Amino acid sequence: MKLQFSPKNNQQDRVTEVGKAYFEKSLDYDVYNDMKNYDGKVLIVHGTSDNVAPISYSRRAIETFKNARLKEIPGAGHGFRGAQQEEATKAIIDFVKGSIQGDR
Fold this sequence. Notes:
Elements: H1 11-26, H2 31-35, E1 42-47, H3 55-64, E2 68-73, H4 82-101
């Protein structure tokens, strides 16, 4: 990919080109295949009403990772706000504290 800056080829055009190339390569990537090789602890926090990445992806991921847990946020979408954000934050803090202390 040849990138040149000119008035007709601004930064947004370059970002679009890179984004497109990244997206096209990602179509053939099997993330679950790599997940099974990761030995570290994993916490996935996912909203049950996520319309961008279905909750089934995370449910499959915790079955694929060797040491993972899933915190589902009922009714939450792809981002968290208010009480849902507080619930997600608590889950993350508890996970990090547990990891530091040697718990799961």
